[in-house]
Amino acid sequence: MFKIEVRSNGEAALQGGRSGAGLLRDLFILAKARVVSLLVFTAAVGEILAPGVAQHWPAALAGLLGIALAGGAGGVLNQIVEPSLDQHMRRTQRRPLAEGRISQGGAIFYAAILILAAIGVLSWGTNPLTLGLTLLGTVGYGVVYTLYLKPSTPWNIVWGGLAGALPPLIGWTAVTGTLAALPLFLVLLIFVWTPAHFWPLAICCREDYAQACIPMLPVTHGVDRTRREVLRYAVATWAVSLVPAFLGGDWIYGAVAWLAGAWYVGMALRLRRMPIGKEMDQYARRVFAASISYLFLLFAALVAGRVLLSHGF
């Protein structure tokens, strides 16, 4: 049993007394395990849709493990850079680095282990294209977004979102070793979904972002402009979500994408029209949560449509 005690100089030391479960929970938080689970899910869908996945299942499993490890490393890198910012935000002030439960040196070591493990797994089990795309996503989020985009531009989440949009393509290339139109459109789908997904949360947390001097769109351009952008990106997501139905001739997915997109755009439209206030903030958080369900539903429908149509439904 051990604990991580914060010394007066800010460093953390391992000492007896803290449960292993507590440390494990902190490691999961550092790796942003909830975010990584969505990355792995979308990558798995990319693999399932790829031709020959049954024959290349070892590569598919290696791809998922590599994405999970690399995504975790990106999450740790993000928090290594931002402990002082996290301390100023209610949403993040209890993170392990922000509270000093884990030292920055320990977090760097943890990130290095994760990324080296990811490189090893992907090099052994997949192909150079998959390894390159995975490293591009990790560096894009953990370094480019965190160090350069987030502190410098209100459009940070737009361009930074590309890193989190790559998993469906990575899953596809893990199985096939090649690029194709369908996974590229899935990347585009997540790319246009990301701003509509994150900006409602930024609306709720705009005061915290302002206090932390982070130029999120609600801070720099106001709530009204942000709500307009949420609606625009929601409509764009709806439009892009219909493309895979035409590429694969999948009317089952197409029906789900049409109905789910109408529902999501309706939520964004209601958010756009609400008076600014506490009720709007609460509803914005609902839109944020609903956006995750929306993306999950789209990708689950892709798999369901493929399975049902392959059985002559």
Number of strands: 2
**Low-pLDDT sequence parts:** 1-17
Main sheet specs: 2 strands, antiparallel
Radius of gyration, Cα only, in angstroms?
20 Å
Structural class of the secondary elements? mainly alpha
Measured as a percent range, the helix fraction is over 70%
Tally of separate helices? 16
Beta-strand proportion: under 5%
By oligomeric state, this entry counts as single chain
The average pLDDT score comes to 90
Strand numbers in spatial order across the main sheet: 1-2
Q: In sequence order, what are the helices and strands, one letter per element?
A: EEHHHHHHHHHHHHHHHH
State the distance separating the first and last CA atoms.
Answer: 56 Å
Q: Which shape, going by the Cα principal axes? A: globular
Question: Which key phrases capture this entry?
Answer:
about 325 residues; mainly alpha; two-stranded antiparallel ribbon; 16 helices; 2 strands
Describe this structure in words.
The protein has 16 helices and two strands. It is globular. The N terminus is likely disordered.
